[in-house]
Design goal:
The protein is mainly alpha-helical. The chain contains 16 helices and two strands.
Length: about 425
């Protein structure tokens, strides 16, 4: 038997392996879904005859849906459990992909397309939080730092989705057919893989569910140990209390700020690297795209190497090195006197940004009984930076240029460096 660390239960090695593989599928499918619609944005723009401003409004619909979902994700996961949340989220994302494609190719309706992207955002936010809760649980069961590799699976999913999207565009496959197929694959694969999830059915040491008789004063009666996702009459009120406590927890908030800097570094690269290379370093559009590909490649390498590095050195030194590398790489990219040095800076920047989010999720879930609430708080802060930070950099770029606007990210990375000790594992 293999102990499920921190859960007070035991599972076999085979069950843990199937559990881990199922969570890998959930992460990879999320990356596939994201890259599928992103890779067809040029086709969506052309089919709907959109201006750059109109495209921005479409993206804002997805962003607002994601942020609303991730903000409520703690309550959702506590109420439904991570398995049902992930299944529901993946089905919503599949439906959103279908609607996005249908609105583009069949209805030629920007409103329908925007609604589809909003549904994708709503499904994605809670799905990602629940995946991090499930991933942290299987990480405790395995007894190793596997969260970086789970996020690496997301990165591989984005690579696969982008490749399939490029192939679909090359053969002029209608957006509706492409996104409908991607949505079906995502929904079916995740719904099937969720059968092997265990975070909701393995009792958690210290988890307490209050009954109506003892809610006002827990000391007046026995408090049973009940797995997450098991309903009770007082559960909604108890869940709101857990979320409120998580938002008042000093360590959780500091973890959120730690993740904020590194998530902003990742999000800023996705939105601005290609343009910064073209406008700031005089490179072609193709070279700009290649530069972002280089960043993603090294970020993926960092995530798959993260397990070994974290097992050997621990979270705090690794987080310090990550923040320092991200600062160094970003600084080299901004001030590089030659293009080849800018590309070298992207590689270092990608490695530095690779582990912030996965390590932050692991640290937030150190206490299994409070994992869902705390992960939702850190996710909300991190995703807020990831989604909202890059547009704000665009406003700053109007005054100082794209390259120098990225220096604002370095300030937040310096804060992440100073906050690295809060990632230390709880005793």
């Amino acid at each position: 038997m293999t102990p499920s660390a921190g859960t007070g239960a035991s599972v076999t090695a085979g069950e843990v392996t199937r559990w881990r593989n199922a969570v890998v599928v959930a992460y990879a499918a999320s990356g596939l879904a994201f890259a599928s619609w992103v890779s067809r944005l040029p086709a969506i723009r052309d089919a709907l005859d959109l201006t750059p401003g109109n495209v921005g409004v479409l993206l804002l619909c997805m962003t607002l849906g994601s942020f609303a979902s991730v903000s409520a994700s703690g309550l959702i996961v506590l109420r439904l459990g991570s398995k049902r949340t992930i299944r529901t989220g993946s089905i919503m994302v599949g439906a959103g992909l279908l609607l996005t494609g249908f609105g583009t190719s069949v209805l030629s309706s920007p409103v329908a397309t925007a609604l589809g992207l909003a549904v994708i955002g709503l499904g994605t936010g809670s799905w990602n939080t629940a995946s991090n809760v499930e991933g942290a649980a299987v990480e405790r069961a395995v007894g190793r730092h596997i969260m970086p590799r789970l996020h690496g699976a997301f990165s591989l999913g984005t690579v696969a989705g982008a490749g399939l999207g490029a192939a679909a565009a090359a053969v002029s496959l209608p957006v509706a057919w492409h996104l409908a197929a991607a949505g079906a694959v995502v929904a079916v694969s995740v719904a099937t893989a969720a059968s092997w999830f265990r975070a909701d059915t393995t009792p958690v040491a210290g988890e307490r569910t209050y009954t109506p008789d003892n809610f006002e004063d827990p000391s007046t009666g026995p408090i049973p140990v009940i797995p997450a996702g098991t309903p009770s009459a007082s559960e909604p009120l108890d869940n709101k209390r857990k979320i409120a406590q998580a938002w008042r927890d000093r360590r959780t908030l500091l973890l959120g700020v730690l993740v904020l800097g590194l998530a902003l570094a990742e999000g800023a690269a996705g939105d601005w690297v290609a343009l910064a290379l073209a406008d700031g370093h005089g490179q072609t559009d193709a070279a700009g795209a290649a530069g972002y590909g280089l960043f993603v490649t090294f970020m993926t390498i960092g995530r798959f190497a993260g397990t070994l590095v974290l097992d050997r050195f621990g979270r705090v030194p690794v987080m310090r090195w990550c923040a320092a590398m991200a600062v160094a790489g970003l600084g080299l990219f901004v001030f590089a006197p030659a293009p080849w040095l800018a590309f070298a800076g992207l590689a270092v920047w990608g490695l530095g940004a690779s582990l912030g989010f996965p390590v932050g999720m692991s640290a937030a879930a150190d206490d299994p009984a409070k994992a869902a609430a705390r992960v939702s708080v850190v996710s909300t802060i991190g995703y807020g930076a990831f989604l909202c930070g890059p547009p704000l950099l665009g406003l700053l770029a109007e005054y100082v240029g794209i390259l120098h606007s990225l220096l604002a990210v370095m300030v937040m990375l310096a804060v992440s460096f100073l906050l690295s000790p809060v990632a230390r594992k709880l005793a």
